[in-house]
User: What shape does this take?
Amino acid sequence: MKRLKDEDARRLLATMSATGADFAEVFNENTHLSTIEAVDGVVRATRSRHVSGTALRILEGFKESRIATSSQDYPTLSRHARALAAGKTPACEARSLAMARPAGRHKTIKAERSLEDFTSAEKLAVIREATNAVQEAAKELKATALSTVTVMLTADTHEILIANTDGVLEHETRPYLRLCVSAAAGTSDDRQTLMHDIGGAQGPELFAGIDWRTFAHDLVSSLMTIHAAPEMNGGVYDVVIGPGFGGVILHEACVHGLEATALVGHATVFEGKIGQRIANPCVSAVDDGTIPSSWGSFNVDDEGHAPARNLLIDHGILKSYLIDHRGAVRLGFPETGSGRRQDYTYPVTSRMSNTFFLPGEETLSSLVAGIKLGFYAKTMGGGSVDPATSEFNFAVREGYMIRDGKIAEARRGATLVGRGADVLMAIDGIARDDLSLANGICGSLSGSIPTTVGEPSIRVRGMTVGGKEAA
Amino acid sequence: MSMNFTILHELALAQGFTALELVTTRTVSCSLRAVAGEITDREDTARTTATLVGTLPLADGLHLGRMAFDGTEEDPLRLLSDLRDQATLMPAGATTELVAPGSLYAKPRGAHRAFGSASEKEQVLEDLLASLAKEPGITGIPEASYDDVRMTRTLVNSRGLSLADNWGYASLSAEAIAEGHGDLKVGSDYALASSTRALDARALSARIALRARSMLGATQIASGSYPLVLDRQASSALLATFASCFSGENAIRQLTPFAGKEGQAIGSPLVTIYDDILEGRYGRRVFDDEGMPTQKTMLMDRGIFTSFYDSRKTAAERGTSSTGNGFGGQCAPGLFRMKNGTTPIGRLMSFAEGGVLVTSLEGLHAGANPLTGDFNCQASGYRIRSGKRAEPLNLMVLSGSFASLLHDVALVGNDRDEARDGCAPSLALPHAALSGK
Assistant: This one.
């Protein structure tokens, strides 16, 4: 098939900037999205999609004009480039286009073997191994209520060309590999489900060395615990949030409000607070796109910039926002390597990568020990936030009551709500020894992108916990 | 589209496929976006997406493969190679023959007319911004947008079926910040219309401003069980989340609360639920992506569960007929709706005296599980006093199960939002669990 050549990208930039645009950019992609879904080891669905197209954009100050087209044909793109330029008032000479930055300098992510070479037979073998492991675990744990095992294997390869009038010319290949294993227990009148996953920005080597038995036992034992648990009593509790996906609280309750997208609309409670205390002194947090082969990492962002480890909160003090090129133009902050988009049909905006609380000085035991009646959210689900008010909600996948300083009986169906600005202040302890990251998909203005969230265990004083039973 | 089906079909036959189908969707859209009260973004999109479906005879029977791609410039041999991989992966199944001509289809609407001119599009967004700026208490407009989209879809296959339809709409949306009494709240809403000129910026502005202003000073309710009214937006959001409870695919997987309950009472006699994309003002389609005619399918008739909706594949496995719900390679709802009731919203409010009117639900994507029917989601709204909405409430969690909710419906409002293809009218419940302070 046709692919856009570097020289053609260069010519398109010249055309787009000929009438005086401050900035012009070509984003071209050839992405292959591939998913196999199997139920109890039998393939139920396959999805294969080749996403190919080009986005052209120009900026005049903060104002942006874009054309997105499912074409890579130079004459077609040239016509679009001229149309974009025609919308401009000639203001200055087109700048010379020095393509200064060599491609492939950054190797945060790399597939030892291309996902395009990961055969269907190999994928099916992984799916069957995972399915068998869960079914075996159910036998070993006498989990007779386990009814269905659904396994979804996604292997996506994004091939991107980014060129702009600041001299960027980058070619980026991003492999995203993820295995989601869901199990269901019970009958139609009382069913519970739970999903665990393995994923990364890497090739099939992701699965080498996976201890499937441990993975499956964790899934089945957690599912059976939830299935047997009574409903949560809603109310206000001191809450300990477990490591890994618990970091969704930072992602939703705070960092969406640190994105340039929220700042330019004056729609975040964190606007104008750089250097001010926004969290308890025990809280430090980063967004780090440089973690090797992590699900939220990349070699260059979707504006061709290297990722960075951005310190967002340092001992409670707000240190940085997440800034894309356009946000930098409007806000005057330096770019942070945070420009991301789902694909060429979405605008590029400031987004997170791998975002997590840094370790503190406590342990899970010491966090729980100080609570007489509370709630332990061992594993979190997804959530959402309104950055303007910082009001958020998160589902809890696996939770337990805390009684007299000990983790007690399991409860199902809990949801946490609150205000991010309040919760950051209400965190009064962070564990030092159990930081972990978890994979997710974040949806926002620029589409759905892979991100990780993470944290060590944290304690939050006085959160609203929702549940079916009124406390 | 320049991808020539005849050539593609010939290549497919040479590679061992016995039948081929190509579904093409052309999307032309325009988007204007305003940030902080100023129009800052314009995007024009012209995208062609296509799905290729082929049948491949293998040793164990006929396999059906499906793959999708963008554009018109893909290498046909590469596409067919991928199609072969997908067909090989899928088990041999009963529904592998493609649809032949002969079915009766509803009449498609005429080709969608162009929307307004570029200046009309800018003007309607400017009108919205200006109206919002004049609204009392509104201190900011973080984001507002105008969008229009036109979709043209064609389906052609080697059995001689050739179909086409089209749909489109224009939309206007915004979120605005209200400040007062030491508080800040955000209101948002949208409008849909068939043309740019038909969008009523002033009416939308008033709704958004009211949503923001009226929530100022909101507090948390004490955790407990309360009589409840879900207004039409909240009930629509909740109902749409659970549409897949009525999916034939989930029935096969035994992952729906309604598996095996055909003919049984699963809800109040006041509740009727159906799927009918032909009713849609904006997304009406006369055939699904498998070439089957779309139709009205009764899912729950006055409390009795009647049927699941099905694609050709799920229908064959369940021993029934397709209901024209094969969309995007999946078994999916077309326009999933609860039938409008006859009771005015005022009577619903009186019924729930002392309770809560919920006007917004957030976090349903994470807090609601269509496989189990359980939901726990962030809610906001108002206390109901003397049959009217009183003080605002927020940061509540509404918890329950979809199955229980259907049984508990005491009154069905007559206010389904027909102008926006609304999913459900307002509903009154005698009790619901709300968590707060």
About this structure: Chain B is about 20% helix and 40% strand. Chain B touches chain A through 83 residues (CB under 8 Å). The first helix of chain B runs from residue 5 to 14. The mean pLDDT of chain B is 93.
